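May I ask for a single protein's sequence together with how it folds?
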Amino acid sequence: MRTVGQRAVRLVASLAGVATITLTGYRLLSLNATTQGFAYLLLVLVIASAWGFFEAAVASLASTLTFNFFFFEPIGTFTIADPRNWVALFSFLLTALIASRLSTEAKRKAVDAVARQQDLERLYTFSRAILLIDNSEPFPKQLMQKLAEVFELTAAVLYERRTDALYRAGPSDFEGLEDQLRDAALQGTSFADSQHDRVITAVRLGSEPIAGLAMQGVQMPDSVLQGIANLVAIGLERARAQDLASQIEAARQSEQLRTTLIDAMAHEFKTPLTSVMAVTTSLLADPDQPIENRMELVRIADEEAKRLKELIDDSIEVARIDAANIHVHREPSDIGDVVRDVVSSMHTEADHRALEVLCDRPRCVTAIDQRLVKLAIKQLLDNALKYSPPDAPVKIRVYDGGGIITVAVTDQGKGIPAHEQNRIFERLYRSPSVQHQIPGSGLGLSIARDIVRAHHGDLSVTSRPGETTFRLTLPVEQNGGRS
């Protein structure tokens, strides 16, 4: 209805233009027939360029009639006295019609060229948007959101054959066509509903359909529709390849983690096992030795057995720890006492090296999971002992300020290069400069940071040649419980 009304207004305006030029040329300027004919022709070309051939054709006929009536002898009639004027009149009409047709065709081609350019720009924008999709939401869902946004669709729906899932985007609903979507994904069929500006097409990877794509809200050429389907196929395949790469990397890291843990446990277990075997060998070799010697040997074996048990418990804990799922069982604890307990348990690793503990306050109490925090502090101390000179002390300072309790572990090693200070907390990362010189798994600092963050704290490092300090911070919380 709106189109019919617009066309009626244009026809009236076209006829009004013919009347205006006739009045101007006949009454006001008294133009000759040749000049008036060019004026009519110019009007027809303008109308053809602005509105199209139909309006220009009506203006051509009206111009021919008025041209005949007002400018060909005899004036005031539709009769033409000179036969040559008939040729001129029909030449004018034919010229006007051909010119209007050419002008309309040129306008249509210009409009088509602009539309194609817009379609190409949208396809390019959509392809760039695919590359920028992140992992915040499922890839197909974000893909449909980008499609609806770029092409200004009222609805976009994707049925992915591999996952048997529907992904929707756009402000309008697109209900009742799920069967056609599945057919498109399974059989490669297409469906169009021009009345509602709906289209469903198959998304193919090669010749194999992998998904069904439905769009609503705008009509587009088949070439653009096929381009969209191809980009969607590329995007889905890219997402699948990334998922597969992630799975392969996760499997590789899992295998590397398993191997690393086994190597680390084997290395750690050798020391207490060697001590226990030395004791049992001594007792078996000389069962009649003095009771004092036997008791001392049994005491050593007992201590080393306890140490072995702790190592086993720690190894199991390390293997179980998941940064996203650490269960913290809090209880009020004095951090100074926790640090001293860890230092006392590490006399074998220290090997008579000085571990200096300094507490700025008599008690620094907060609610923590003692077992986990001890494991984190032990990782820091073990790291400091590995990388500091044998004759240099390792200092542990505990202080409280601003509702934060800090445990600072300082060693006098070579230091950590600035470009590696952010990477040392990555799981399995070891500096290339030490990975073949100093034993380790690359897990300790990562585990320590995961534990501290599960307590809503943090673990940071500052380092320069000759001094490295790790700062473990914990918020002061008095209430126990589970988190």
Observations:
- The domain at 329-482 is CATH 3.30.565.10 (Heat Shock Protein 90).
